[in-house]
Amino acid sequence: MIPAAQLAETIWREDTASRWLGMKLEEVRAGYARLSMRVQSHMGNAQNVCHGGLIFTLADSAFGYACNSHNQRALAASGAIDFLAPAQVGDELTAVASEVERAGRRGVYDVRVTNQAGTTVALFRGQSATVKGKWIEQP
Amino acid sequence: MIPAAQLAETIWREDTASRWLGMKLEEVRAGYARLSMRVQSHMGNAQNVCHGGLIFTLADSAFGYACNSHNQRALAASGAIDFLAPAQVGDELTAVASEVERAGRRGVYDVRVTNQAGTTVALFRGQSATVKGKWIEQP
Amino acid sequence: MIPAAQLAETIWREDTASRWLGMKLEEVRAGYARLSMRVQSHMGNAQNVCHGGLIFTLADSAFGYACNSHNQRALAASGAIDFLAPAQVGDELTAVASEVERAGRRGVYDVRVTNQAGTTVALFRGQSATVKGKWIEQP
Amino acid sequence: MIPAAQLAETIWREDTASRWLGMKLEEVRAGYARLSMRVQSHMGNAQNVCHGGLIFTLADSAFGYACNSHNQRALAASGAIDFLAPAQVGDELTAVASEVERAGRRGVYDVRVTNQAGTTVALFRGQSATVKGKWIEQP
Fold first, then answer.
1. Any bridge partners for residue A113, and if so which?
2. Which tens digit of pLDDT belongs to each residue from D27-83?
């Protein structure tokens, strides 16, 4: 079995969007991923807080690493988020994704996004579907 | 009553994130908003398609303009998205948000994201909550 | 093609739960279903209003008839509901399901549940997945 | 502080719908509830498995006991469910609700519904909102 951390490095090299947004890949294990992102000034919306879509994007990236951590390619079929506290420009956000269940081709993953004070900014739940193909083909 | 298009222009000037992502404000009416975004090469993920979070972000922006179109400040409390078709780099995405219901401080809005061929890329439903304050104070 | 109304009658005869809950099959067309249910006294919860689960159940039944209206067997993969107004004992609830999108094996359906005064009680969105088999085999 | 188990008994006496559906109140602690329900023959749908709405109803009841376990009255604002495996007539379903987060008047609760073999039948996430009033007034 390919270690999840090695897989994550392989995926990360291709994951232009997450890198462009300034995310950092903190830790990936089987069924688990932790990513972080600093809220930059260009991420603010008209309410002067971080655009909710970018909080979702961080959570969605964490979800993506967790649901692909078994080397079987998986896609996000759907996702839902509860915004519980605003994220301010300058905040350091951390998203922790954990596998809730896998059943056949489907998976359910929960992600909690917190700020540097430990306050929960958002809760995300995502549904994945596996597709054909491995990230790293084994001999 | 302040026209929704005028409100939208006011909000747009402060909406750094949506402008940074290259979105265009196409049309806003009461309870309705249409925005567009071209998928740029830095928006691709490791599956070589547009990061789902950025599709959500476009939908969330359209939702934001629609739920703020009555001049009463409103926030996104939650949102959910179904990803139905991938968006490719170079695609021109359009998000159309429509008000489904307002009940007290709560609102529900649906957003359909399509590509230039008219294919539905994603369906979003968002829940808003009004907060104190107007975007433009009336004399 | 088998008419949706004929299909619905076939499904209804096997749909013990919906009949047991006192639902009525009002109208089914391709991609559309309307069912009604009176809130009976045993449906009340501790807040003395209709148990939200039974409102969901009515919406889920309407969703089921709409997503099976093409004669291809389909299952509910997931569903989400916003409870916007309470339903009182004695209320006559109507659930109208409409098809939002079909893409491959997946479908998305919206259901609005209203009471006899036309007030929206709940908004439901369901995700279906087709499975093998027809409801009525054609020669 | 009123013990959660005592509160639950008070609520249960008024909770006609859950009792009518044959649910059993197994255990309630602060932020936690466990209920069970046997799938009876009249709960079957046209696919000959338990109507998904009734699985949601069980999960929603567990959610209700968990979000009211602090003696502050709370309502379900919304809920979403993933159906992962069918429940057969005769199955003994157990729903375990746990508090994920409380933030101001809002709460988020997760419920896992399993059958007697331990298979996960459904995953539910509910959003609550507190309202005025206590279940048991303290002197």
1. A95, A122
2. 999 999 999 999 999 999 998 999 999 999 999 999 999 999 999 999 999 999 999
Structure-token pair, residue A134:
């491995």
Write out residues 86-125 of A within 8 Å (CB-CB) of C: 106
Q: Give pLDDT tens digits for C76-124.
A: 999 999 999 999 999 999 999 999 999 999 999 999 999 999 999 999 9
**Contact yes or no for B120 and C103 at CB 8 A:** yes
Nearest CB partner across the interface for A101, out of D101, D123, D127: D123
Structure tokens at D69: 């376990």
To which CATH superfamily is domain A4-134 assigned?
A: Hotdog Thioesterase (3.10.129.10)
Residues whose CB falls within 8 Å of the CB of residue D85, separated by 6 or more in sequence, listed in order: A103, D115, D119, D120, D121, D122
ipTM above 0.90, yes or no: yes
pTM of the model: 0.97
d(CA D127, CA A102): 23
Buried b (16+ CB within 10 A) or exposed e, C55-72: bbbbbbbbbbbbbbbbbb
User: Minimal Cα distance from D109: which residue of A?
Assistant: A123
CA distance A103 to A101: 7
Nearest to A87 by CA among A119, A121, A120: A121
Q: D69 near C73, Cβ under 8 Å?
A: no
